[in-house]
């Protein structure tokens, strides 16, 4: 049986044995509820000594290494290690996440501390700079960040008596920080002569600027300000690891195993030496202390937690024990009692009671222990050692029975036979030894078939066979007790194994992911009765599979908690518990097994929330066993929207090419043309890969998007307004609850989301910086203040924004599969859901992160792809539409029921006051009641129902529906075919907008004397559009093949169309009926042209690189033009109809004589003089200027010249439409550029009277109509940009002063070597002998008069206290502007020079200074607001990028 689904039973973490003492300090505290909080491995533990109960916080994905307690002692902050480590703030009572802080630190978070009122949190990273970061943790927002120190920082603390001050300490330093604005500024502590420069391990702040710190040598250093004033020597005899301040005073704990209590002035109260107590031992080292009232908590290096009551200080109570440092590998369970045995590299073997959750026995051995086994009667305990020896103990009193050393390498696995007569011992040297138990463990046999180390062993139930696994993943069988290898597999077939702990074998094939290294699963154990298998792997995950588990990549449930390798896992004897042990975190986890029948009663318990989903039915091969995806969705999941070149890359590319082409541009180039164009109307709507992107606005207009344009369509006047702020495909659109604003998200390397007003089409906010490749879904919150977006990057990032402030509130990885929809909860602004390929997730915000839980399907359904989702009438209820046509109804995260709604996928859903409306691939709109019980009404989209006022024609009945919106008594429907329809409640349908269907559009022709045009596309349709005010599709005809080009005859009666299979046809231009068709070529027909005048000849160009010339009247081929080396791209006739100009894919410009097709060689000067009937060529001298600097990356695909031969319009691969003056001679002409299409502009054509330009966007399937605004018409439009690809100096250079200033580089000087060598310590940093009368030096205050000094030894003068700046001559005018201002009604002048801000009093001529800058000031401005009088901002050259603001009455930094 293949395990198609995960097992329906469950594991619940019940107890964790251990405490992380190694490499961590200050990580053990009392909470307000008198519980004890600490961490072990990747789990935060809250232990209640009264009830002897543990609660677990499992929001981390790797080892936790730091912990801080909020001043109110309920909330806990924990930090972890990892590539992208994060900080979780969680509630110790409910163990739920309150906030997540992420995306700043790398490697790990070494220390954490809350400030006095608990509003801010400081964290220190493990990166190379040991970054210090201050957070507003509730909002998940970083307030400030600075590099901490070049070496490790061990402790950091807020000064609880001075706001905005912090102290950090670490390897050979202590730093005093002040937080000012968003800048953290450090000052190093001065050790001076009072104490030696030392590594400081811990600290505590006290009143009067005093700081106490514990040093590596056991002394306590006392600081005042930044100076060391005294040391308390010998406080401990070795390093002081922990210092804890409380109301009564301070407690310190050190490596010497002592706890000392001090009063508030740091006078000693008492000392408690833990090594001398009953539980003590030599080498006990204290890592953490916490003093609360008369209780003291102590955490030790060896994973114990003691509680000491101050009155009975010699009887500490041991409340938690665990293994010490060193890997933990050995695990065995007692055959009849609820006991587990573990053995570790710390050389101890320990016996745990699974019922009492306590350590009941421990024995220290001579060697590190690698494996353990209990005999069948539970009397003997065999231990395999790292040095190859084997020791057997009596369980009763832990005395040795026998000690054997037959091997030199580590013993990895040993097991007693089920009948109790033999012990099999597997070694690293790839042998297995068999010993007889009753014969005092005499060696009976040896198995030598393996080529690699032995990893696992199992006996058969009759004790006659042994199976082994080795490091190569080989599975071998031996006869017992002799150890002969079984060669014939038939012999083994019927054998029943007493236990299953092997990782290879047919029964456990499914535990391996499809593509994986053999050794990353360390241990398995089968539970035959419950038919489940538990596995432990190198990634810290415990998994449950069904047993037997035959097919690779089976489904499982996974549980996290261990940090790195889980080395071993076993069921308890009665299958009530699973015990797992962690290698590096040396912790023992005890999981309660909840079988299937019990789960039913426990459904109301929501699964544990965590960032790494701890209850997922994921398998490593999701796709092997799912129903086929619907073809449309299949197609859509393949779309990546990746571009070769993004518009963001243009400036860079231009720079690169400019370097290459420095010499080329000497000719004076033409100005850009005087004409400009303005987007007038767009035919098309993006439905083929987007959903729910069509809405009514407040005023009843319709807003949607196509290509890179947001469109607001007025259906009464049949006009459109455009939002042109995007520069690439828009993929999603959401409307604000007030329906006056719209958010749209686009494709891009760093894609942006624009929020714009539908009335003015002006942007209000642009958000970028967190997505990659594109934004595929957006949604506003119910109050309209927030916006959620989902991206197209590999992790499908979900971001929550405060869009008005442009601020990211939180961000998270959404899912490994594509997300189709994101929806904000209308009742709770902090909740949202995302849905997409085979998942739906419910998220809630926690500070800077989002916590997601997968929808729990249970037995009701299968994991379907969700295409749309809405919230219901309460915050718990949600509805989603699946790819199979069902609607799923969710309560909280549980699937309640499913309802069949459509045939094929449900693509769109809309919630009403009393009910819902859905639309699907079946082309039906369905109205439902408020609980999806009954379908009230359905509307089928059919051609028969089209109302007379429609602006086009429906191509097929029941088109796939992609968007639905309600309002103004109508249902608005968007289809996959690019149509927007309005369905009246009574049934008639009006078609409002339409474009081509999926497939590229290339063919475009404008009529010789009417405002209409024809297009032909890969969607196999030929369409005629009206460009006059009615803007509609006049006619459409289906073709047998897609087409790439078309052309009207000069009299406008016939229309020639070239198709993709090499055939072409001529149709009647009015009825679109066939006149004649030919099929002479095999490849695409790329251009087709009637000769001018009577239209006697037709030139047909193909990708076979030939041009056929036909006589139209006789319908015969009269000539073939040969000689092109590549496919033909453009063809033009001359005015006489005698000459053809041809462009090819190889960028050749060729000329052929008509009608015979003889190749002509015409020099380019002559070619210029020829009069051409049309110009669509992109090559030749006349249009040399249209090729951009980056012509190698980007093709100009189309051009078209106005009939008065003055303006050339071009379209290119990057979606730009450009206008050039004609002829565009000289390279890189100047142009006006317009963005509306997204990628390729495949064709451009002027209408017969040049009043409009029609452009086609290939992949965006849209037809855009632009009006031509003549030179006199001078209303500047936002999308005009007069620019060229190379701006040369010819356009008026700079004034010499400006040129010079433009060339100043401020970086060189700041980064170059120092002007003069500096050695020694600056005078003011040198240590002075502190004298009794010395006050702390205050800079910029006049120094006190020096007292007369009597008989100083050697008559040394005292060093001068300080230099004070008195006057500065000079003002920086040479490269600065607007940097002198009056202040205080003209009494003072403020300006700057060098690195000083100067306030000059006009009357007295005195100056006062602002001296916090450390390099040249370059700019200065004064705040004009009456509220901020005398506030000045100055900015300086690099080194530090802070802008101190200052209030000038006092010259202090704000």
UniProtKB/TrEMBL annotation:
Region annotation (Disordered) ranges: 609-633, 652-673, 1274-1297, 1325-1355
Domain EML-like first beta-propeller: 53-307, 719-982
Coiled coil: none
EML-like second beta-propeller domain ranges (all copies): 328-592, 1001-1267
Gene of this entry: EML5
Organism name: Odocoileus virginianus (White-tailed deer)
WD repeats: 233-264, 330-362, 899-929, 1234-1266
Gene3D superfamilies per UniProt: YVTN repeat-like/Quinoprotein amine dehydrogenase
Basic and acidic residues: bias regions: 652-662, 1326-1337
Biased composition (Acidic residues): 615-633, 1281-1294
The name this protein goes by in its record: Echinoderm microtubule-associated protein-like 5 isoform X8
Keywords annotated in UniProt: Repeat, WD repeat
Pfam families per record: Beta-prop_EML, Beta-prop_EML_2, HELP
């Amino acid at each position: 049986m293949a395990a198609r689904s995960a097992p329906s039973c469950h594991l619940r973490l019940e107890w964790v044995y251990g405490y992380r003492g190694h490499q961590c300090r200050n990580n053990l505290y009392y909470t307000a509820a008198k519980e004890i909080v600490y961490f072990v491995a990747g789990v935060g533990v809250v232990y209640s000594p009264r009830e002897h109960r543990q609660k677990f916080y499992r929001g981390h994905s790797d080892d936790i290494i730091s912990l801080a307690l909020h001043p109110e002692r309920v909330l806990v902050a924990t930090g972890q290690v990892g590539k992208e480590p994060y900080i979780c703030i969680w509630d110790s009572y409910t163990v739920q996440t309150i906030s997540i802080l992420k995306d700043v630190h790398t490697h790990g978070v070494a220390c954490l501390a809350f400030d006095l009122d608990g509003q801010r949190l400081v964290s220190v990273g493990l990166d190379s700079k040991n970054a210090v970061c201050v957070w507003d943790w509730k909002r998940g927002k970083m307030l400030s960040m600075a590099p901490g120190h070049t070496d490790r920082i061990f402790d950091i603390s807020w000064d609880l008596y001075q706001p905005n001050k912090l102290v950090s300490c670490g390897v050979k330093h202590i730093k005093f920080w002040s937080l000012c604005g968003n800048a953290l500024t450090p000052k190093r502590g001065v050790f001076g002569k009072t104490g030696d420069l030392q590594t400081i391990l811990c600290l505590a702040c006290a009143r009067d600027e005093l700081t106490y710190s514990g040093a590596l040598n056991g002394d306590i250093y006392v600081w005042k300000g930044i100076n060391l004033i005294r040391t308390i020597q010998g406080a401990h005899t070795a390093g002081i690891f922990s210092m804890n301040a409380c109301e009564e005073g301070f407690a310190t704990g050190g490596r010497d195993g002592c706890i000392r209590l001090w009063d508030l002035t740091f006078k000693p109260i008492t000392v408690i030496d833990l090594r001398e107590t009953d539980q003590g031992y030599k080498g006990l080292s204290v890592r953490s202390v916490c003093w609360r009232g008369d209780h003291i908590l102590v955490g030790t290096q060896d994973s114990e937690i003691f509680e000491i009551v101050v009155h009975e200080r010699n009887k500490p109570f041991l409340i938690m024990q665990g293994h010490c440092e060193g890997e933990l590998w050995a695990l065995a369970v007692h055959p009849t009692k609820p006991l587990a045995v573990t053995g570790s590299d710390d050389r101890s073997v320990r016996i745990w009671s699974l019922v009492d959750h306590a350590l009941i026995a421990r024995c220290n051995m001579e060697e590190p222990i690698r494996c353990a086994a209990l005999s069948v009667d539970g009397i003997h305990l065999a231990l395999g050692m790292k040095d190859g020896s084997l020791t057997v103990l009596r369980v009763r009193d832990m005395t040795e029975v026998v000690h054997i050393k037959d091997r030199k390498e580590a013993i990895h696995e040993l097991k007693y036979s089920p009948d109790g007569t033999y012990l099999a011992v597997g070694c690293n040297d790839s042998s297995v030894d068999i010993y007889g138990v009753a014969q005092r463990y005499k060696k009976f046999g040896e198995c030598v078939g393996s080529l690699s180390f032995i990893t696992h062993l199992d006996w058969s139930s009759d004790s006659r066979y042994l199976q082994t696994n080795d490091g190569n993943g080989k599975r071998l069988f031996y006869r017992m007790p002799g150890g002969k290898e079984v060669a014939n597999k038939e012999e083994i077939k019927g054998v029943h194994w007493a236990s299953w702990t092997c990782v290879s074998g047919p029964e456990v094939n499914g535990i391996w992911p499809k593509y994986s290294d053999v050794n990353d699963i360390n241990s398995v154990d089968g539970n035959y009765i419950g038919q489940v298998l538990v596995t432990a792997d190198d990634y810290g995950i415990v998994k449950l599979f069904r047993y037997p588990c035959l097919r690779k990549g089976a489904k499982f449930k996974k549980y996290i908690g261990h940090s790195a390798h889980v080395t071993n896992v076993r069921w308890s004897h009665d299958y009530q518990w699973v015990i797992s042990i962690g290698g590096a975190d040396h912790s023992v986890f005890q999981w309660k097994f909840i079988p299937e029948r019990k789960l039913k009663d426990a459904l109301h318990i929501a699964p544990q929330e965590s960032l790494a989903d701890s209850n997922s039915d994921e398998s490593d091969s999701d796709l092997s066993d799912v129903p086929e995806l619907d073809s449309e969705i299949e197609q859509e999941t393949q779309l990546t929207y990746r571009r070769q070149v993004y518009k963001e890359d243009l400036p860079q590319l231009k720079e690169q090419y400019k370097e290459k082409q420095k010499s080329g541009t000497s000719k004076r180039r033409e100005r850009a043309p005087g004409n400009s164009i303005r987007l007038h109307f767009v035919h098309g709507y993006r439905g083929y890969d987007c959903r729910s992107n069509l809405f009514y606005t407040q005023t009843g207009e319709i807003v949607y998007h196509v290509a890179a344009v947001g469109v607001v369509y007025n259906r009464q006047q049949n006009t459109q307004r455009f939002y042109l702020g995007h520069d690439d495909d828009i993929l999603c659109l959401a409307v604000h609850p007030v329906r006056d604003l719209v958010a749209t998200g686009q494709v891009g390397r760093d894609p942006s989301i624009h929020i714009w007003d539908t009335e003015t089409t002006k942007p209000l906010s642009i958000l970028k910086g967190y997505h990659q490749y594109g934004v595929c879904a957006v949604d506003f919150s119910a109050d309209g203040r927030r916006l959620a977006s989902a991206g197209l990057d590999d992790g499908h990032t979900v971001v929550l924004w405060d869009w008005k402030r442009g601020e990211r509130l939180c961000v998270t990885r959404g899912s490994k599969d594509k997300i189709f929809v994101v929806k904000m909860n209308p009742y709770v602004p902090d909740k949202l859901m995302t849905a997409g390929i085979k998942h739906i997730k419910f998220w809630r915000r926690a500070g800077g992160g989002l916590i997601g839980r997968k929808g729990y399907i249970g037995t009701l359904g299968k994991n379907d792809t969700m295409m749309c989702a809405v919230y219901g009438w309460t915050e718990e209820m949600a509805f989603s539409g699946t790819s199979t046509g069902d609607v799923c109804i969710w309560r909280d995260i549980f699937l309640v029921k499913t309802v069949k709604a459509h045939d094929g996928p449900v693509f769109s859903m809309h919630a009403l006051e009393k009910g819902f409306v859905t639309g699907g691939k079946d082309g039906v709109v369905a109205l439902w009641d408020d609980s999806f019980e009954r379908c009230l009404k359905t509307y089928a989209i059919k051609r028969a129902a089209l109302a007379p006022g429609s602006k086009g024609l429906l191509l097929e009945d029941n088109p796939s529906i992609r968007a639905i919106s309600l309002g103004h008594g109508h249902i608005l429907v968007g289809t996959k075919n690019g149509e927007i329809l309005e369905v009246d409640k009574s049934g008639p349908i009006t078609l409002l907008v339409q474009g081509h269907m999926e497939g590229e559009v290339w063919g475009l022709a404008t009529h010789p004397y009417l405002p209409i045009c024809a297009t032909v596309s890969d969607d196999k349709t030929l369409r005629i559009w009206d460009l006059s005010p009615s803007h509609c599709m006049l006619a459409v005809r289906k073709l047998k093949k897609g087409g790439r080009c078309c052309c009207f005859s000069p009299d406008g009666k016939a229309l020639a169309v070239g198709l993709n299979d090499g055939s072409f046809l001529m149709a009647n231009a009015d009825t679109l009926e066939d006149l004649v068709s030919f099929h002479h070529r095999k490849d695409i027909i790329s251009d087709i042209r009637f000769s001018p005048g009577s239209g006697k000849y037709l030139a047909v160009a193909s990708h076979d690189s030939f041009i056929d010339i036909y006589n139209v009247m006789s319908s015969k081929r009269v000539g073939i033009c040969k000689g092109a080396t590549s496919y033909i791209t453009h063809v033009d006739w001359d005015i006489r109809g005698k000459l053809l100009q041809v462009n090819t894919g190889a960028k050749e410009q060729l000329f052929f004589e008509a009608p015979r097709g003889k190749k002509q060689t015409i020099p380019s000067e002559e070619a210029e003089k020829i009069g051409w009937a049309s110009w669509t060529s992109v090559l030749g001298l006349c249009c040399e200027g249209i090729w951009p600097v980056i012509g190698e990356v980007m093709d100009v695909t189309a051009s078209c010249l106005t009939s008065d031969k003055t303006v050339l319009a071009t379209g290119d691969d990057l979606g730009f439409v450009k206008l050039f003056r004609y002829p565009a001679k000289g390279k890189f002409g100047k142009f006006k550029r317009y963005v509306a299409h997204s990628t390729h502009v495949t064709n451009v054509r002027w209408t017969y009277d040049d009043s409009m330009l029609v452009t086609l966007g290939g992949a965006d399937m849209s037809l855009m109509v632009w009006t031509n605004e003549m030179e006199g018409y001078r209303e500047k439009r936002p999308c005009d940009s007069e620019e060229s690809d190379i701006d040369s100096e010819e356009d008026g250079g700079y004034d010499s002063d400006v040129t010079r200033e433009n060339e100043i580089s401020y970086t060189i000087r700041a980064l170059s070597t120092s002007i003069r060598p500096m050695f020694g310590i600056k005078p003011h940093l040198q240590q002075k002998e502190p004298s009794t009368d010395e006050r702390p030096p205050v800079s910029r205050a006049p120094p006190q008069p020096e007292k007369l000094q009597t008989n100083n030894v050697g008559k040394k003068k005292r060093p001068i206290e300080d230099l004070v700046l008195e006057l500065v001559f000079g003002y920086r005018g040479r490269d600065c502007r607007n940097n002198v201002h009056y202040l205080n009604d003209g009494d003072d002048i403020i300006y700057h020079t060098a690195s000083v801000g100067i306030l000059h009093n006009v009357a007295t001529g005195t100056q006062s200074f602002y001296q916090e800058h450390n390099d040249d000031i370059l700019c200065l401005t004064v705040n004009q607001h009456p509220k901020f009088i005398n506030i000045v901002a100055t900015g300086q050259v690099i080194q530090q990028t802070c802008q101190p603001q200052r209030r000038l009455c006092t010259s202090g930094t704000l």
